[in-house]
Amino acid sequence: MPGLTSREPRPWAAWTALVLTLVVAGPLFVCLPLTNDAEYYDLQATNVLQGGVLYRDMLEPNLPGVVWLHMLVRTVGGFRSEVLRIADLAIWGAAMALLYSWFKAGGVRPALAAWTVAGCVWCYVSQTEWIHCQRDGWLLPWAIGGVWLRQRQIARLLSDSATARSIAAWAFLEGTIWACGFWIKPYIAIPGFAAWLLAALLVRKPGRVLTDLVGLLVGGGIVGLAGIAWLASTGAWEPFWSTVREWNPLYFQAGREHWRLVRLFGAAFRLAPWSLLVLPAFVPAVLWLTAPFRDRDGSPSHAAKRHLHALLAAIWLGWLAQSLWLQHQFDYVYLPVVVLSFVMVALWVGDWPAWPMRMPASMVFLALALIGSPVLRPERLAVWSRCWSEGSSTAVRQRLALVHNPHWEDLRRAEQFLREHGAHDRNVLCYHNSLVYLYRDLELLPPTRYVYLESHLAFFRNRRRSILEEVRAAGADYVVTDLLSTGLPAGQARLPGRHKDDSFPPPFPDAARRQYPWNLPVVFRAGSILIHRAAPAAAGLAANGDQHVTVPTAGQPADPSQGTRR
After folding, report:
1. Residue 406: is the preceding peptide bond cis (ω within 30°)?
2. pLDDT mean over 474-496
3. Helix, strand or coil for residue 123?
4. What is the pLDDT of residues 240-263, one digit of tens each?
5. Residue 155 to residues 178, 203, 357, 507: CA-CA distances in angstroms?
6. Is residue 359 classed as helix, strand or coil in its secondary structure?
7. pLDDT per residue as tens digits for the range 131-143
8. Residue 149, exposed/middle/buried by CB under 10 A (0-12, 13-18, 19+)?
């Protein structure tokens, strides 16, 4: 951590701490289970690699960039979960390498930059598996690379010796980088625009600013056209455009309707102590954004550092705004904001040697970061050697998992039952998002394009009837449900029924048993997971029409973080 003493620490100490972090936490990180979102993107990647069509075969309300990355990783490394988690760690490492290089080029002291990077890595490996292998974290290398080029472009725009051709060429390159991130998740455009706007206000040379903007748009446009060409050549453009027009507005609206202050506080609690730095980060943000306008004198090195600080504050504010007001309230959405908050506070405090509370404050935060991290828990460290010998086995996953949903041993028993009873393509329907693993583990095609059926029924309420009609027409033989996804605590979800013919735990509401899919007969129970006999397909759906009940709260899919243990 930066600022632990008044004496400047040496960079080698930070690199030693980083190596120790990777040695201790690396195997545990790699053997954590994948989140169901990563598994769903894997399923889509597999479908495309085997000749399927993206967006047509499976409903996906997001841009295809993350599926392309999954296709690349899986083509190169295969389909073991450890491969994707290693790729995730490599992507985070690329972001940190770019951050360190940017800081060094911007005049940040090497030791301070090194300790900041080490802190970011500790933050990431200390999070639950729901945070990892997500698009928001994968945006950081593109954002950091783009803003580093933006800082260099500011210097070029302010220099009288820079030609219009060089300005346009470097803007073109920067535009391609932001556009690559855009294909992963379009909200990167908000911090990107904030960085460009800051540059335009600093330069105040309309001709050069226009040349810069044109170069950015042309570079981004070419990457955009390349993506569109891929969609068109694979037959995915029409279903993609249909999704954008017909489904995405409903998905965005659902995020607004489900926005709750309590969920924001819940995410902040689960991301603590790192989330505690978001409010203090406003102080350097204001100081840094105004500094280049207040003080335009000084050496080029001082100007570079002011611009670095200002750009960091600009993308932080842009990221904060889009994560709070444009996105669904999932923990992983807030991770870049939390990490950038730590970076800003670390640089601010690290450059404030006269503050008498610098050492005590740093020590307190360091203690909180170590105590609050699951990495150092004895029960998890006890699995370290098994990670090397077994990899991410069912038993290792169950021991390491920080999210209780699904129960991995129960899932494996359900998979065995389905395998023994002739599961094949399109005859098994996984109702809850947490069960999507069964499709790939059993090498099955889903019966409909609504793979996240639980979420699709909740988010696209005006389409429930048509979705359920397609489910009925698909005629799957088995429907698999997960009691943990209803919001029941793990201890209650795995309780036996009141008698031998009762497949539901006593806390499960009687009223819910009369609603689809719970009204279907249960043929097998593996702890928290139920396997229902769906045939005849119309029986379970006809009684409910377009009704949908999520237990215990209606109309909103279960939040995986409800089962998080920190």
Report:
1. yes
2. 92
3. helix
4. 999 999 998 988 888 888 888 999
5. 19, 9, 35, 64
6. helix
7. 999 999 999 999 9
8. buried
Q: Token digits for 509?
A: 């509401």
pTM: 0.91
CB 508 within 8 A of CB 488: yes
Bridge partners for 533 per DSSP: 478
Please tell me the total number of residues recorded for the chain in this structure. Answer: 566
Q: Is 445 helix (H, G, I), strand (E, B) or coil?
A: coil
Among 481, 479, 453, residue whose Cα is nearest residue 468 = 453
Token pair of 334 as six digits: 């807030």
First to last CA, the chain: 22
Residue 97, CA distances (Å) to 138, 200, 216, 272 in order: 14, 27, 24, 25
Nearest to 486, CA basis, from 454, 446, 532: 454
Are 470 and 534 within 8 A, CB to CB? no
Sign of CA dihedral 108, 111, 112, 118: positive
- State the Cα–Cα distance between residues 158 and 153, nearest whole angstrom: 9
CA nearest to 332, candidates 437, 403, 245: 403
Q: Which two tokens stand for residue 523?
A: 């043929």
pLDDT tens string 62-99: 999 999 999 999 999 999 999 999 999 999 999 999 99
Model confidence at 295, pLDDT cuts 50, 70, 90, reads confident
SS (H, E, C) 284-350: HHHHHHHHHHHCCCCCHHHHHHHHHHHHHHHHHHHHHHHHHHCCCCCHHHHHHHHHHHHHHHHHHHH
Query: Distance from CA of residue 203 to its chain's centroid?
Result: 35
Beta strands in 172-233 (DSSP E): none
Angle, in degrees to the nearest 10, between helices 164-184 and 189-203: 160
- Cβ partners under 8 Å of residue 30, min gap 6: 82, 85, 86, 89, 387, 392
Q: How many CB atoms lie within 10 A of CB 88?
A: 23
Q: Comparing 352-366, 462-476, 528-542, which segment has the lowest mean pLDDT? A: 528-542
Positive or negative torsion for Cα 47, 53, 57, 59: positive
Separation between Cα atoms, residue 538 and residue 425, nearest integer Å = 20
Is the pLDDT assigned to residue 541 strictly greater than 80? no
User: Taking CA 104 as the corner, what is the angle to CA 103 and CA 107, rounded to the nearest 5 degrees?
Assistant: 85
Residue 555 has pLDDT above 50, yes or no: no
What is the pLDDT, as a whole number, of residue 565?
Answer: 46
Closest residue by Cα to residue 223 from 63, 71, 76, 96: 63
> Tens digits of per-residue pLDDT, 4-19?
444 556 789 999 999 9
What is the torsional sign of CA 26, 32, 38, 40? positive
List beta partners, residue 482.
529
pLDDT in the model for residue 188: 97
Burial call 167-200: b when 16+ CB within 10 Å, e when fewer? bbebbbbbbbbbbbbbbbbebbbbbbebbbebbb
